[in-house]
Design goal:
39% strand, mainly beta, 423 residues, 3 domains, Immunoglobulin-like, 4 helices
Length: 423
């Protein structure tokens, strides 16, 4: 080997000293590496070779879960059919009924779950074909056929007031409004049915269902609602197994708002009706209430008191035909008259209404068969401001105590109401 220096003169140079120095340096490095340990994880740590690197774990296989099982019967028409994949995605789901119709479905955003978009048909047979794909391997398909429940009894609910009128959305009701869930036939399993009957309020109000008979449940809070409360009632029964061999018919729901606090107090001691608006007295009206006493006609015993208790306004009509024969009092000893400005308080036919012919008695003598007579002007005024759910308290009259079937929901003690079973 030769080295060039300054380009013009060439001579041989011995390499032994250089080799010696290189060897000495290597020895020093080896000794240093033995006597000065390098902390784990420091810049001095050696890098593993490719052969020592850990291998990445293999992806988990896709797992499909489908309900119901193949060949299943009595499948719930709501929430009874569903497909779910883990560690993969659903690539195609086809549900067809026994007439060959394809049923729409809802696929989750991440394509991991699917369910029908509509309520399936009672007694129908369906075929579900689910194709799914994992991170490795090809697509797989699961196919199964099943039959939905075919109940002999379907419960169909409606939402009404205690007076039987429809409970309506987007309107205001009085602070004492009672929600009534009425079914078209007796309920076999009240506990199960109640799981699908919900009342939501804003602000939150504690309340409870109370069964007034075997097909009707009423809901009320412990105290009157506050003005402005928003109420949502849902009977989520469609396709539900309600127990006792009964399944639910079409669901129903309403949303409404509580209006101003209007309370009318009819006091037999003063023979007046005092009307309070948001707890302020706004009007006092003379009245003539039920004359009292008992009578029996054709085996039917009846009384003529305006029963004391707490009522709510059920509905109102500008004219009402009063016919005593509808509750058993013959016309020859009763009446059939048309009155104006009727505000109904009971299903038996107790009203506030105008009656000019009894104005002489209003404020001093009870002469009616149970209604609360008012002058035409007072009856018109009360009619104009009354809404369903307004409170009417009758005080100091005779006769029997008001019962729940007489629009007496607010007469039931809260401790009794909470037990929920009146019938």
């Amino acid at each position: 080997m030769s080295l060039s220096r300054f380009g013009s003169t060439t001579r041989s140079v011995a390499l032994a000293p250089l080799v010696f120095l290189a060897g000495l340096l290597a020895l020093l490095l080896v000794v240093s590496g033995c006597t000065i340990p390098v902390p784990t994880g420091s810049a001095g740590e050696t890098t593993p070779t490719e052969t020592s690197e850990a291998q990445a774990p293999a992806p988990a296989p896709a797992t499909l879960r489908v309900t119901p099982t193949d060949g299943a019967t009595d499948v719930a028409v709501v929430e009874g059919v569903r497909a779910l994949v883990e560690n993969g995605s659903l690539t195609e789901v086809v549900l067809t009924n026994d007439a060959g119709k394809t049923i729409d479905g809802n696929l989750s955003q991440d394509a991991s779950s699917w369910e029908p978009a509509v309520t399936l048909g009672y007694g129908r047979t369906y075929t579900l074909e689910v194709t799914y794909q994992g991170a490795t391997g090809g697509p797989k398909t699961d196919t199964r056929t099943f039959t939905m429940a075919n109940p002999q009894t379907i419960l169909r609910p409606t939402l009404v007031t205690p007076g039987g009128g429809a409970l309506e959305s987007d309107r205001e009701y009085g602070v004492g409004i009672i929600v009534a869930a009425k079914f078209d036939q007796p309920v076999a399993d009240r506990t199960t049915v109640e799981k699908h009957m919900t009342v939501t309020t804003e602000p939150s109000v504690e309340g409870n269902w109370f069964w007034v008979d075997d097909a009707t449940a009423h809901w009320r809070p412990e105290d009157y609602y506050a003005t402005g409360t928003r109420v949502r009632v849902e009977l989520d029964t469609e396709g539900r197994n309600l127990g006792g061999g009964q399944w639910g018919g079409e669901s129903t729901e309403v949303d409404f708002t509580i209006g101003d606090r209007r309370v009318a107090i009819a006091d037999d001691e003063t023979k007046t009706v005092s009307v309070f608006h948001n707890q302020e007295l706004v009007k006092t009206m003379p009245t003539s209430m039920g004359k009292g006493g008992w009578a029996t006609y054709n085996g039917v015993t009846m009384h003529f008191w305006t029963q004391r208790g707490t009522y709510t306004v059920l509905d109102k009509a500008s004219t009402v035909v009063m016919d005593s024969s509808t509750y058993g009092l013959p016309l020859d000893v009763g009446y059939k008259v048309t009155v104006d400005h009727g505000v109904r308080l009971t299903n038996e036919g107790i009203y506030f209404h105008a009656l000019a012919s009894s104005m002489w008695a209003q404020g001093n003598t009870n002469v009616s068969h149970g209604c609360l007579n008012l002058s035409p002007d007072d009856a018109s005024w009360y009619f104009d401001q009354a809404v369903a759910g307004d409170i009417v308290e009758v005080r100091n009259t005779g006769g029997p105590e008001q019962e729940i079937w007489q629009n007496g929901d607010w007469a039931v003690p809260w401790s009794t109401w909470q037990r929920g079973a009146g019938a």
